[in-house]
Amino acid sequence: MADLDGATVLVAGLGVSGVAAARVLLDRGARVLLTDAAERPVVAELSAAGATWLGGLDAVPGDTDLVVTSPGWRPDSPLLVDAARRGIEVVGEPELAWRLRVAGPDGRPAPWLAVTGTNGKTTTVTMLEAVLQAAGLRAVAAGNVGRPLVEVVTARDPDGRPSFDAIAVELSSFQLHWSSSLAPAAAAVLNVADDHTDWHGSFAAYRDAKARILERAPVAVADAGDPVASSLVAAHPHPVTVTLGEPGAGQLGVRGGVLVDRAFAADPAGEALLERDRLQVPGPHNVVNALVAAALARAAGVDAEAVGRGLAGFRGGAHRNVRVASTGGVDWVDDSKATNPHAAGASLSAYPRVVWIAGGLLKGADVDPLVAAVAPRLTGAVLLGRDRAQIAASLARHAPTVPVVEVPSGDDGGVDGTGVTAEATMAQVVAAAARLAGPGDTVLLAPAAASMDVFRDYAHRGDAFAAAVRALAPGRP
Asked: What are the backbone dihedrals phi and psi of residue 444, each rounded to the nearest 5 degrees, phi first?
């Protein structure tokens, strides 16, 4: 349904993507209905623009032509079950954006270069954005990374042309579940680990949602070191994999400390992109992310020099392996975005001696394989959050000589039963880590768990960590 003028569209969920979808739908002449569990302040603005607020719904209004659902709404939500039963199409905001793309002077919309994966998506799409911009393209990272796609694809410059030449698109499994026609110019699955099975119902359903990103893409990219991701691209007509070792034909990899392209280079021996040491984000996982970003850019025709320049200038995002201080020979690193064991393992692998700050909401994840793998790197651990006892038990099994400190913390989003704030809890955590750390150690916040038991979100947790570290060592960069 590309022509929405006069169509009745129900927007389910008024988070960032839902509100953006409602605004664009109103601009396109649709009759917009709004539903959510609670009436948010933005409802007044949207109602003034012509939308109709219906409150909470368990059934779709009878005259509805299309439902646009926010990614947080599970497929078994009564409203979405009712839509499926009645044959009313349900799409997510990315699918709506795909259908509303604006063509440029050449008659074609800006290509999408799309990334999904359990971990590393945001780093990879922001790396890709930097590379595309280094190539002189008007490019933006959008989608699950923050900026809604419906805003990006319908934006125009003062001359009436589309505002962007290329879009680096981050897509979650939730968004892909509700996408049926996306056809990015190239797409990548970084990795697939056990996550979000509560939303999808099974690991197989989660994996299959990730695989949807590849269905209509002419180039499919994956990490050769991830068995699930690499299996998803294996049967694709144009598979490209990346490796931390010597690249074979059709791969990007590392040769003699240099990132090399043997998938898109004219020379069969490959083309050098960048010295590995010039990457400003640490860890093998970020080398993989850089290679995937390079593969997508190369698939879009970006030359090797621009790829290298864009990657060399990339400095990473907030709360993703950010060094917040160095004092007394100890580095303090914020990777609060490591919200599951897979992400924490990638982060821990970047540092040889670690005082690990971990804990929060594990959401049923098994931390035993992670702890067993990283035990030799640990010089201490400080645990907080609701599920800290599970991590403590795993450390006792696999790292019995590593000193462990548990810091009690509340689970109601910021204040525990004694009135202790999230910031005060983190101050205790940082003080305990300082007692355990010695010269040559990295104190690493890589919680392997979600944050909402004590903090508002992972950003709040990372900010509290950085503030506590700076209070511990004021004036030390």
From this structure: -120, 115
Residues of the chain with CATH 3.40.1190.10: 101-313
Query: What is the percent of the chain with per-residue pLDDT over 70, rounded to a whole number?
Result: 95
CB 176, CB 192: distance < 8 Å = no
- Which residue spans of the chain are classified as CATH 3.40.50.720? 8-97
* Cα distance between residue 154 and residue 144, in whole Å: 17
According to CATH, what is the number of the domain 322-471? 3.90.190.20
What residues does CATH 3.90.190.20 cover in the chain? 322-471
| Token pair for 174 | 């939730």
Q: Give 72-79 contacts, CB < 8 A, sequence gap 24+.
A: 72/13, 72/15, 72/174, 73/12, 73/13, 74/199, 75/177, 75/201, 76/201, 77/12, 79/12, 79/35
State the pairing for strand pair 322-327/378-383: unpaired
Query: b/e for 196-231, b at 16 or more Cβ within 10 A?
Result: beebbeeeeebbebbbbbbeebebbbbbbbbebbbe
User: Which tokens hold the place of 236?
Assistant: 């694709």
Residue 330 structure tokens:
């100890």
3-class DSSP state of 423 = helix
CA distance 395 to 402: 8
Q: What is the DSSP string of 227-294?
A: HHHHHHHHTSSSEEEE-SS---TTEEEEETTEEEESSS-SSTT-EEEEEGGG-SS-SHHHHHHHHHHH
Identify the H or E element spanning 10. strand 8-12
Fold of 8-97: Rossmann fold (3.40.50)
At the second CATH level, the architecture of 101-313 is 3-Layer(aba) Sandwich (3.40)
Q: Can you point out the beta strands (E) in 321-469?
A: 322-327, 330-334, 354-358, 378-383, 404-406, 442-445
pTM as predicted:
0.77
- What's the CA dihedral at 447, 451, 456, 459 to 10 degrees? 30
Hey, is 17 helix, strand or coil?
Answer: helix
Cα–Cα nearest to 75, from 182, 229, 195, 202: 202
Q: Write down the pLDDT at residue 414.
A: 43
Q: How far apart are CA 29 and CA 193, in angstroms?
A: 42
Reported as a single tens digit per residue, the pLDDT across 146-190 is: 789 999 999 988 888 889 999 999 999 899 999 999 999 999 999
